[in-house]
Amino acid sequence: MKNVFINRASMFLPNEPVENDELEEFLGYVNNKPSRSKEIILRRNGIKRRFYAIDKKNRKSTHTNAQMTANAIRALFEDNPEELATIDLLSCGTSSPDQMMPSHGVMVHGCLPETSNIEVVSPAGVCCAGMHALKYAYMSLKTGDKTKAVATGSERFAQTMISDNFEEEVQQLIELEKDPFIAFEKDFLRWMLSDGAGALLLETEKNPDGLSLRIDWIEACSFANNYETCMYMGGEKLENGDLKSYKDYEVTDLANKSLFSIKQDVKLLGENIVKLGNELLLSSLEKHNINIEDITYFLPHLSSYFFKKPIADTLQADGLNIPEEKWFTNLSTKGNVGAGSIYLMIEELFNSGKLKKGDNLLLMVPESARFSYVYVWLSVC
After folding, report:
1. DSSP run (H or E) holding 184
2. Which CATH number fits domain 215-380: 3.30.70.2120, 3.40.50.300, 3.40.47.10, 3.90.1150.10?
3. Domain 5-212 class in CATH
């Protein structure tokens, strides 16, 4: 088995950053009224700015998910674009592909004519999709099947959050003489999500000059066998907890029920997301004989700063205290980019000049869709 190293990290963020007071100028007002929950959510999530792949004036797309991902990949090879032709694996994770078919990965490959005919994979999922993409690339290199891989995580959410996507549902509520507002489960995520892409170059030899991140282990686990759906898109959650697919609705319901908006069962999220993550962390540290004190930087993917204290309290209760100065996140300045968030954190820290040989990084990526977690241990060398 070969060692696998992250030798480069890059990102692409579309357009100029969007500040909190500009949100509804970009996304629009549902029923021509300000959101009832926006200010509450913004106070709790701590996000100050995010990035949208849409034009402010017309709310039209400026980039596809595939284009953003391809731009992030090109940034890995900015000093030597011919090197793009030497990669032999492209592994792309996202929860917001531009279409159902073809896959996200091959669409990214299609944006990169500089590459060769190579293997391409597209792990499905939500926030963990980016980590599954990383693990596929890691295992492919570790076994010797590939020698040079690119893994990516990206999202394009903004276009699904504009007010036009909710107007049919609102008008239906007005006709039924019900209060025409978008339920909290739908409005909750409108003020948290962001667009962008990150990319990592993986090789079986470390950088000859400068630092590399050796991937020591990746542990992933789903808890879906015991828990019902929490976050979803393209369906509707029924009273009994089952998820009804958009395929089983009438065509008119797609708009009337805004079935392709992202929704979250906030109560279920709060009850389970933190405690389940600690279960996997405890078992992973024990399996790999890791002492929590060996962590130099803890990179948790947070959907909201609201979860930071509960995570810290739960860690401490389990004897896993991680001091504040070891936490690293850029949620406030990049927003929640879902499958791309952890890539953006790695990119920022890797290129910050803060790392030194011997440092250890613990990555944590939760996924509330049906409760999954991924932990990664990286050694700076």
Report:
1. helix 184-190
2. 3.40.47.10
3. alpha beta
Is residue 78 classed as helix, strand or coil in its secondary structure?
coil
- Residue 67 carries which side chain, given as an amino acid letter? Q
CATH 3.40.47.10 in the chain: give the residue spans.
5-212, 215-380
Count of Cβ atoms closer than 10 Å to residue 244 Cβ: 13
Which residues are within 8 A (CB) of 300 and not within 5 positions of it... i.e. 6 or more apart? 308, 311, 327, 329, 363, 364
Tell me the residue ranges of DSSP E strands in the chain: 5-12, 18-19, 49-50, 89-94, 119-121, 148-155, 196-203, 213-222, 231-232, 235-237, 243-245, 263-264, 297-300, 360-367, 372-380
Residue located via tokens 């088995």? 1
Q: Which two structure tokens, joined as six digits, stand for 274?
A: 């933190």
Q: How far apart are the C-alpha atoms of 73 and 175, rounded to whole Å?
A: 48
| Strand bridging mode 372-380 / 213-222 | antiparallel
pTM: 0.94
The answer to whether 365 touches 374, Cβ cutoff 8 Å, is: yes
pLDDT tens per residue across span 241-297: 999 999 999 998 888 888 888 888 888 988 898 989 999 999 999 999 999 999 999
DSSP letter, residue 211: -
Question: Quick check: 199 and 339 in contact, CB under 8 A?
Answer: no
DSSP 236-294: EE-TTS-EEEGGGS-TTHHHHTTTTS-EE-HHHHHHHHHHHHHHHHHHHHHHTT--GGG
Maximum CA extent, the chain? 68
